[in-house]
């Protein structure tokens, strides 16, 4: 079938064509590049290149519209950042050429972003692209751009800048593969909004030569080099079956025998609501509010928070909207809420509710904004705390929520201690939502950020499933709902297993909703239960997947 590379599928669909690489060969201005002594003239060149770049990015954004416009506007702001301009002026004042000064000043920003954890590190590609655009203008060399081709191709790159992704022509580019990037990168988000199959974080992407025929599966993350005709045909027919099944799956989530499993969307802010609605979300199961707080020097004010929360509540009249209070710390550091000191293991340090217990005012203001946002809407606001560890944490949060007038307060179950003691936590939580991403990280002691530990970052690990089962059982006995909002819910096979374990709602990135809806519609509750028991009885991850599938025969026409 040809050599296979693996990455992270971030935008589903199958693309097949010869590869064309995007090369970013902007020469790095040498460290000793000095200007001719006229610093003022050199500064004018630098500032006008920065301004022209900002204008060009804005114009591209206006042409592209939608999500791309926001991303490109953010890049234009980077090019116009006054602190950056000051740093460039200072460096030119010390003798550097305009190109060298821009390159050095942006390297400082890059370092800061790259070390600031997953969410900000994902913005490095955006910044690099801005730098390349300004420096190439100053050096008079062409701006890096997508290769021209009259025939369709698979675009392969180290990383793709949003400015490139936004203007990709889906008639020409049938898919893309990048070595860098993560599921939360702008590039991944734009690929989904363009409907382009895409695989990121593909370690072998550099080995793909121009002209190699490449088959990209944006659901599984598989990239096959020089596939046989049969492999291509099989992948295409699977994708067509999946797309047809997904298209016909509409309405509320339910198993084939009518057991209701509300399907909710994970969102990071109002910008994600259109996709949630388009994909038939029945509400929001996880509103990651920290996105409103990232990338800024101060916390958003009361009115701004009220507006952002109300947008979600108004999008789902009568529906359920679960908002998670600020989950900062570890991979989501906030400028205005630093950790108490250097933490050798930030994921095991002060994050989530732990941070809020040290800064109760920040939580109080968020809860007050949520309570106000709900006024005059008829959505059912649910508020939950991240990183709850024990009963004392759960009681503390329940009291804080009650005094802010929040009616439904729950906890995330993402620490094994909380899962094991769920029956006790249930007394002070109206609902549970299992965060399988962190629950897996902590159960298997495998840092989410470390690429080499993927075997232990798999929520199919039977130990993780045992903890989900314990939580769902405790919730059931206490008469409480128990959702899952980690990535596990987006895996259509695992979603059926979770339902069989007793999970009552599933929440996921919007684009995963149709496949999960289709998978549930093809499986009875009894089949889901049998699949769950088989997965729990399995010895390994592979056994768990294989034996669970064995009970879910209806999934075969989805190619699962
Ligand atoms: C949903 C979760 O939270 P986050 O991914 O934001 O940590 C989780 O841990 O599963
Ligand atoms: Mg988490």
UniProtKB/TrEMBL annotation:
This is Phosphoenolpyruvate-protein phosphotransferase. Its main location: cytoplasm. Its cofactor is Mg(2+). Its EC number is 2.7.3.9. Residues 6-123 form the Phosphotransferase system enzyme I N-terminal domain. Coiled coil: none annotated. It holds the Pfam family PEP-utilizers_C. Belongs to the PEP-utilizing enzyme family. Residues 153-221 form the PEP-utilising enzyme mobile domain. It comes from Nocardiopsis rhodophaea. It catalyses: L-histidyl-[protein] + phosphoenolpyruvate = N(pros)-phospho-L-histidyl-[protein] + pyruvate. It comes from the Bacteria. Residues 246-523 form the PEP-utilising enzyme C-terminal domain. Keywords: Cytoplasm, Kinase, Magnesium, Metal-binding, Phosphotransferase system, Sugar transport, Transferase, Transport. It is found in: Cytoplasm. General (non sugar-specific) component of the phosphoenolpyruvate-dependent sugar phosphotransferase system (sugar PTS). This major carbohydrate active-transport system catalyzes the phosphorylation of incoming sugar substrates concomitantly with their translocation across the cell membrane. Enzyme I transfers the phosphoryl group from phosphoenolpyruvate (PEP) to the phosphoryl carrier protein (HPr). Gene3D superfamilies: Phosphoenolpyruvate-binding domains, Phosphohistidine domain, PtsI, HPr-binding domain.
